[in-house]
Predict the structure.
Amino acid sequence: MTLEVPVAREQVGLIAGDGRSPLYVPRSWVAIAELGQIFVGRQDELDRIDAAMRHPGLSGAALIGAGGAGKSRLLAEVVRRADEGHHLVVRACACQATSSVPFGAFAQYLPAALMDTAFNGNALRMAADALIGQSGGRDLLLVIDDAHLLDEASVALAFQMARHREAFVLTASRSGEGIPDPIADLCTSGLAEWIEVRPFTRAEVGEVLASTLGGPAEGALVQRCWEATGGNAFLLRELTTAMLETGALTLAEGVRRGGERLPVTSRLAGLVDKRLTGLTPECRRALELLAFGDSVSVDVLAGLVSRAAVETVEARGIVKVERLGGRDRARLAYPLYGDVLRARAPRLRARRCREELAGAVEAAAPGPGDLLKVAAWRLENGERPSAVAVAAATRDAWSRMDLPLSGQLAGCAVEAGKGVEVAEPLGYGLMFAGRSGDAEARLAHLGRPARERDRARLTSVRAFNLAFGLDNVSEAWLLLRTGLDDLTGGEPRAELRALQALLHVFGGRCHAAVVLAEQVMADVPGDSRARCVAEVARGVALAFLRRPEESFQALGEARELSLRWQGELPWLEIFIELGWVHACLLTGRFLEAQAQAAAGYDRAVARQFPFAIAWFCLLRALVARARGEVREELHRCREGVAIARHHGDRGLLAVLLAQLAQGLALAGEVKAARRALAEADGLAQRSLWLLQPWIELARSWVAAAGDSPDAPAIAEKGAALAREFGAVGMEALALHDVARMGAPQHVLARLRELAGQAGDGAVPLYAAHVEAAAAGDGDGLAASSAELERLGSPLLAAEAAAEQANCHRAAGDLAAASAAAARALRLARSSGARTPALSALERPRLTRREHQIAELAAKGLSSKEISAHFVLSVRTVENHLQRAYRKLGIGDRAELGALLGLFQPAHDDDHSPTM
Ligand SMILES: Nc1ncnc2c1ncn2[C@@H]1O[C@H](COP(=O)(O)OP(=O)(O)O)[C@@H](O)[C@H]1O
Ligand SMILES: [Mg+2]
């Protein structure tokens, strides 16, 4: 199965042609050609410019920002948006060539005679009058890009016109180049606004990528581009071009993914070279060292070049100096430069850089993470650092989540006979790199460590990998049991028992997990690793057992404890947040669940930890499911599936695929949904059995989308499974789904019972909703709809409103029916979902003529005007209007506007259906 295709060949685009001879080229060419037209973000800046232009006391705005920040593009956008009726836009053309010609920048707007006269006060006045003369009474907007290149006469002209409020002067200048004094004076004297053009945020980088690449890019790629370019618009454009040109991108599940490393094309290299022109060889050397050294202490760097060189590159904005761990460290402001410099450095030069860095860092007092780098540089240079150093560096790299490096170092440590010491980085590292089979083979090879602690850790990493990596749960249990027989100490045994508790909970045995976890916690000290793992298992179990307060408390404590152990067990965070988000979801705290899942995703992306990213994609998808945001659900599932497939996480992949199927079913893509579900079913997933109810529910939604009468029964199976787990919240959610599929009577009794057990949150609300639906109680449904909206689920609220509309209509209350139907449609609009309740909504249907007339009435036309428009009698128009009001359940024209967009006209004019 080839699921990843190069983006460049993804599609063929039309670049030019007159219809008879179209020119088709790879899609990437079109994307590159369109890069310059894209405009993203900058709302804040645009608003401020707009406000300044309207402000009576202001006559200018100065944009300032780094080279390539996006100043020129922003100016172009202001010009594009300017209203020609109100403004005459005069665009100065400032460049090196005109910078010594008086009025050179405004030459095209000024009379030829003026260009020949000497520059004096008289000429200045004439020039201003000439511009005013062309304005035809409109306001003048002088737009000056690269203001530092403006000739003196033009500066004076702009300054004077701004001072006398004869024009609004909008300038752009590069920070560091200095803006002309008079323009700066305008700002300091309060006549002009000073507006900084900031680097793009990560979200904006994501938007740029999405619009240039023709669809969403995975979070990890967005993060890398954002980091590499420092959010610089120009560098981002060039990097995108390089990615498109080299075919470095692949398309998986409709998500654009990056390759192992960012591409360096000769064009990109040339551009970086150009940016570095004028630097002394010493400055360049400083940059090269940073390219290999990443973040280097300023003292070390100054020792290798000179302090003056470091100061120069910092002043030029190419290097950033930050205080980290109590000392100043330098790094490249745009890490993309580092990629270019490294790619271009000849081998021997690269080697010498690493050698010098390693020597200098070792000689100085190394800071945190420095020794790890030294080991990495030495390895890269083909040297053999000592076994102890490698083992220490491996653990360090591991705790920093540098997966590739820790993997490489762990391999060396094993060769040097230090395998036992690096068992965890080795095992987890391989597992998280999608190589669980290798991990098991290499761990099994390490033999039986002499020390109990080492034995416990080796056993636990192996068992974890067997269960969650290879989905071989029985083997994992066997290993843990024999491992326990081989241990006597309380703490080493507790480590394995805590892991057993975790396997219990993910196996769906929530009660057993709580019991075992509590035993472990009673046996070991408060801050031990075993206690932390046990606390996580307990917290997750409590979340599913619907004991939310205890769960939040347990997980909160686990969060605190995990700060200490996160470096050794990076999966702790994932399971903690999995529990937390479920505790929120199952008690109806949808908005909190959303915030938690999104924050976790951001952290995972910032750490470039694919395993965690895929997990957080699932959590975000589950939140989106609860809120009924189908597009978001699909997007998150696709990204997660692409990662999990690439990394071979079978259990997680199965849940993600099922969730994808659920989203596709709601989006009406039944075939694709069935395919995804079949694939999910093909992957065994005993290690994540706890999440199986989600898969069963997905199955029921796929069935419902295919109009299968079995859908409610399948959802009931999901509920039964959750009940088996003791997962009351999940059971209630599943039963609610059964009701949503049209079988409320079936589940009412059990939901009532569950609602009686649980005080607040979602369960009583689900029960009340189902109660009202079963009884056909319109007012009850209205109340449920309002509550569900408040909970943060527009889709569920829309469904209740749709049911309410049908109840009212059945009772003959057309006005109430119409209002509820309108509410249902409005709420469902953002969701994009098709569900049985929404399909069953009978909408008031206007005839085409009624709709046309109502539309004009909504725009404020009188009946007489409408009658003239359609050549009808006024009486006929009024009759049509009255019928429309009756169908929509409204009293007059004022309410028409909001409703009309929601109700499309019927196709058949003659047989107007009644409500
Ligand atoms: N808001 C934006 N959205 C998308 N692309 C942008 C935006 N601003 C700038 N760019 C891209 O970055 C490039 C450099 O921007 P530019 O405005 O020329 O920078 P500056 O004038 O600050 O040096 C532009 O050619 C454009 O492709
Ligand atoms: Mg520019």
Observations:
- The radius of gyration is 33 Å.
- The chain has a mean pLDDT of 86.
- The longest helix spans residues 452-469.
- Residues 35-36, 38-42, 65, 67-73, 208, 233-234, 237 surround adenosine-5'-diphosphate (ligand 1) (CB under 6 Å).
